[in-house]
Amino acid sequence: MAPVGGSVAPEAGELAPVAITGLLVIAGVMMLALCVTSGRYGYHRDELYFVSAGAHPAWGYPDQPLMAPLLARAADLLAHGSLLVLRAPSTIACGATTVVTGLLAREAGGARRAQLLAAACWAVSLTCLAAGHIVATATYDICFTAIVSLLIARLLRTGDDHLWLAAGAVVGIGFLNKTLIGVVVAVVLISIAAVGPREVLRSRWLIAGAGLAILGALPYGIWQLTHGLPQLALARSIAQSGTEGGRGGFIPFQLFLIGPLLAPVWIAGLVALIRNRRFQTLRAFAVAYFVLIPVFIVTGGKAYYIAGLYPVLVGVGAVVTNAWLDRRAGVRRTIRAGLVVVAIGLTGALSAVIGLDLLPVRDLQGSSVFKINPDSGETVGWPRFTDTVAGVFREVPTAQRSHTAIFTSNYGEAGAIAMFGPRLGLPYPHSGHNGWWWWGPPPNIDKTVVVVGLDRARVNVHFTGCRLGGRINDGVGLNNQEQGSPVWLCTNEVKPWSQIWRSLRQYD
Q1: Which one of 170, 233, 253, 330 has the fewest CB atoms closer than 10 angstroms to its CB?
Q2: Phi, psi for residue 425 in degrees, rounded to 5
Q3: Cα separation of 147 and 387, whole Å?
Q4: What is the tens place of the pLDDT at every residue in 412-459?
Q5: What ranges do the domains of the chain cover?
Q6: Secondary element (H or E) of residue 408
Q7: CA distances, 427 to each of 26, 83, 319, 409 (Å)
Q8: What's the DSSP call for residue 443?
């Protein structure tokens, strides 16, 4: 039976045509918005870290596999200083996820309008615009998870178990970016075993696909095993940090991933997957969603860790919403359609203001934008930060500068000095934070050190003869992580770096 109003989950081979032109237009408009606004503020601290990590190529790092750093390094080599080029892979990933969300609606029985509605809901979501605006492992992870979900959804509908091979390959590639995809897909498979259709799990192609996924996981897994599993220490730190409102804020935060006004769409999809027999072949995705929420809450995972499943929920929800629009004719139908259009438009406007750095930087402090999206503040002030560090460094007598080190409290600070410091004559920085610790200490001959971001108590533990050389001021009064941080000049001889380096290691 052909889909009526996009509301019926079809049998194998009975899908509506792909609304390819419309999907590409929606994705293209969203990608254009990302490109136009990519240079509004500046580098995010994570982006500075990725570029530096890519300059130290390895199979893995304590906090991530190799993909994001190598892509960032390649972009920086291609066009040094260009945020547009650096963020291009994130932009492409968000565009791909938008198209895939529309295709997931099609797999659920959605005709052209349902497909476009699903793509539009994703394209205007805060998750899409905020994640696509910067380089982030989460951006790629959501894209890979959405693609795997599409392959599994098609497999569940058609029974074509050859698709396990493609799904395994995508998971393997996803493992090169972030291990989270393995957790999500594993729970989806367990959910299929629990609620069906179980017969798709009795396939040698599933084993072959799992083999490809494992191959993708091996580089990072081997690196972690040979370096003492620092990811475990990092996970414990994240669990204790209380990010995104902590465990209590995990569920409320879900309303903001797509946007409060569009929450009825994905919630309708979630309910339909559980209650409506028309979508029972895809029910495992809803079960996985309900399983993953307590798993992430108990383990202290971040609230966006579950975002990779939202393209499925939005896709099914768009089919349900499309059917809702068709239930009334005349004026009522027009009103309903108007409500949907307004919800998409307002969500897009709010997401753009919050996620695309549209607010003038001087108005950011105290704004709702900064409160909802504190990452926006982490893209402000890095050149000025480096200028302040350079000013303290120049207080060192010229003859001693070749034996002077710069040590920072976190990878963002170190990355900023690595990016902007060479033009100011600064030496390559060092830090004990995450991957930077593994790149080693300064030479033992470096007896003088400029210490950035540590409070006096911590400075006195490791260094001697220190005086305050200055404080970071971003010039716009923005109270981000670096604002007001001290910059110390320690001029007396310290213990050899090789002796204190292990005590300077920090994971978070």
Answers
A1: 330
A2: 80, 20
A3: 44
A4: 999 999 999 999 999 999 999 999 999 999 998 888 999 999 999 999
A5: 20-160+233-355, 381-504
A6: strand 404-408
A7: 46, 24, 57, 16
A8: P
